[in-house]
Design goal:
single chain; 15 helices; disordered C terminus; 328 residues; 67% helix; globular; mainly alpha
Amino acid sequence: FEAFFLIVISNDLLKGNNELIKKSTYLITGINLALNLANLFISWNITRAYPIVSEQIVEKISLYGIKGVMPECTMYANPNSLGIMSAFSLLILAHLFQTKKPLVRIFSIISIIFNLYCIYASQCRSAMVALLGCLIIYIFRLIIKKIDVRKITVAVMLICLIASLSILGYAQKHKETGLNYYHITKEENLIENMSSGRYLIWKTGLIAHEDTALLGTGSAKNEVKNRVKFIKDNFESGWTRYGNLGPHNGYLAMLWCSGILGSMLFFTSLLRKILNARGLEIDSRYMIPIFVFVINMFESMFIVNRYFVVLYLFLILSMNEDDEEVKK
């Protein structure tokens, strides 16, 4: 990831943004394909009666080792990482498919089918929901072509932001029920199950960060430390399930890390960037921001630099009405 960011920054300074987006497209899809093929090879071998590669060797060559995780995601941190990067890469491949080069189109079709399998294997529901959201918006855009894609993108971002804050408001209203899964209301229990265990993480963060609401904790690590400390101080030792996990919501993570003031500044700047991004109209690139905004409700995309997603988002948003490609 660090090497990729360095390449992107260097190219952006030397050659400009439009050429960089094209190069990033091939780099991201290539890296994703290589990792997914490695996952498939490892999975195929360790699930056979006589594996070609032993588990001991797999632990040494893989990024995170087996350690109880699904063999399909050995090259990633967890199944969600596999699902998110594969779904993100799938959207980019959909753009590549629009090219007139036969080899690129064939590569895109094969990779899209393979990525669909990887998303299914990961069982990452957040990636599936984000892709479904993109598909709905794409169909809506085909039906009503006159709507400015920038307005659609802004609407999706605001809906996701408001939805995240609404859940936080609901948690504030039911703060007295506490954080014990067996003591919360039936409605809270329903939200907890539908969010795959994320609701109590969000509720814990709401209570733990009350003293730092204005300016935030300063970083994602401090955010987690605050929740761990809060749980250890208020509950029996060892019960830190909802402290050790990340925020699992980029909107709330931004609020807790940057505070109310920092979050307002960030989202105001992001809103302005979207409204100026004429490049969203090129090759349906508005799908990338929509994917980021939807999946950001379940993962901390704005805070944690993974999957290249946010980097690619801002590369696209940086294409405004002054770019030559947009003018053409």
